[in-house]
Design goal:
The protein is an alpha/beta fold. The protein contains 10 helices and 12 strands. Helices cover 39% and strands 23% of the residues. The two termini are 28 Å apart. The relative contact order is 0.14. Bound molecules: 2'-monophosphoadenosine-5'-diphosphate.
C-alpha cells in the first residue's frame, strides 16, 4: 500500500480522503490517503516526517500552499500559480505541482460543457485562490478577462505580473474595482474571494450576469451570497465541489499514472453532504 495524505490547518472537514478513496477503488490502486493536521508553524517538519515514513506524496491545502512552494522543485504550473497543492516525494527530491487551476477549467469545460474560449470572464478576488487559477483560465483564450478586487492594487499587480511574462498574448486582461463593473456583462464569473466563508455579499451589480452566464463560486458546502445573487439574476450557478474533485483527479494522475473518471465521484461526494 502506497501512502498519501492531505496536509492543512484546519483539516478535519477535508473531503479529499473520500475523493481519493473513490478514485482508488475505481482504478484498483492500492493506496491509503489520510488527513494530517500540521501545526501552523510546523508544515516543513510535517512534510519531512511523512517522507521519512515512506509516504509517496501529499496534497497541501490552506494555509500551506505558499510554504510548500518554497520547499519544492516546482512545475511550470506551480511557478505560474506561485503556490503548490500537490507534492511528490521522489527519493530526496520533493516535486511540487499545482492542479487547482486545471481543476477549475476541467469542471467548467467537461462537467458544465461550457467553453472558455471567446468568452468574457470576470475573476472576483486577487488573493492566493485567484492567483492559483488565473494562468490556466488565460490559457483557454477568453476574449476578455477582468480581475476585480476590493483592493484594486492587488488586481493590478496580478495583471502586471502576467503581462510581464506574456507580452505577446492576445487576450485582453484588465483590473478593476467592484464599483467599476456597472457597465459590463460577463459570460463566466468566478468568485475566488474568501467572502463565502463569512457570508459576506460582494458589492457587484446584478447587471453583470450576461444571458446564459455561468456563475462559479470556488467555495462549496452551501449557497454563498454570491451564488444567491447570481441565481436571482438568472445565471447558472456552480459551487467548487467539481473543481475540488477535478484537482484531486489530476493529483491522482500525477501520482499513479491513471486518470479516474470524475463525474460519478462528484455525484457521490455531493450526496454524502
Ligand atoms: P485566499 O487564499 O482565499 O485567496 P486571501 O489571499 O486572503 O485568501 O484572499 C482573499 C480574497 O478575498 C482577496 O481578494 C480579498 O480582497 P482584498 O484583496 O481586498 O483583501 C477578498 N475578500 C476578503 N474579504 C472580503 C470582503 N469582505 N469583501 C470583498 N472582498 C473580500
Amino acid at each position: 500500500t502506497d501512502k498519501y495524505a492531505v496536509i492543512g490547518n484546519p483539516i478535519a472537514h477535508s473531503k479529499s480522503p473520500l475523493i481519493h478513496a473513490a478514485f482508488a477503488e475505481q482504478t484498483n490502486q492500492d493506496i491509503s490517503y489520510e488527513r494530517i493536521l500540521a501545526p501552523l508553524d510546523g508544515f516543513e517538519v510535517t512534510v519531512r516526517d511523512l517522507i521519512s515514513k515512506g509516504y509517496k506524496g501529499a496534497n497541501v491545502t490552506v494555509p500551506f500552499k505558499f510554504e510548500a512552494f518554497d520547499m519544492v522543485l516546482p512545475s511550470n504550473r506551480a511557478l505560474d500559480a506561485g503556490a503548490v497543492n500537490t507534492l511528490r516525494f521522489l527519493g530526496a527530491e520533493i516535486r511540487g505541482d499545482n492542479t487547482d487551476g486545471l481543476g477549475l477549467v476541467r469542471d467548467i469545460k467537461q462537467n458544465f460543457g461550457i467553453n472558455i474560449a471567446n468568452k468574457r470572464l470576470l475573476l472576483l478576488g486577487a488573493g492566493g485562490a485567484a492567483e492559483g487559477v488565473l494562468h490556466p483560465l488565460l490559457e483557454e483564450s477568453p476574449t476578455l478577462l477582468v480581475i476585480a478586487n476590493r483592493t484594486l492594487e492587488k488586481a493590478s499587480s496580478m495583471q502586471k505580473k502576467v503581462e510581464k511574462k506574456n507580452e505577446s498574448r492576445s487576450y485582453f486582461l484588465n483590473a478593476k474595482a467592484f464599483e467599476d463593473l456597472a457597465d459590463q456583462q460577463f459570460d463566466i464569473i468566478i468568485n475566488a474571494t474568501s467572502t463565502g466563508l463569512t457570508d459576506t455579499a460582494l458589492p457587484i451589480p446584478n447587471t453583470i450576469f450576461a444571458k446564459g452566464c455561468l456563475a462559479y463560486d470556488m467555495m462549496y458546502g452551501r449557497e454563498t451570497p454570491f451564488m444567491k445573487q447570481a441565481r436571482e439574476s438568472g445565471a447558472q450557478v456552480a459551487d467548487g465541489l467539481g473543481m475540488l474533485v477535478e484537482q484531486a483527479a489530476e493529483a491522482f494522475y500525477l501520482w499513479r499514472g491513471v486518470r479516474p473518471e470524475t463525474q460519478s465521484v462528484i455525484k457521490k461526494i455531493r450526496n454524502l453532504a
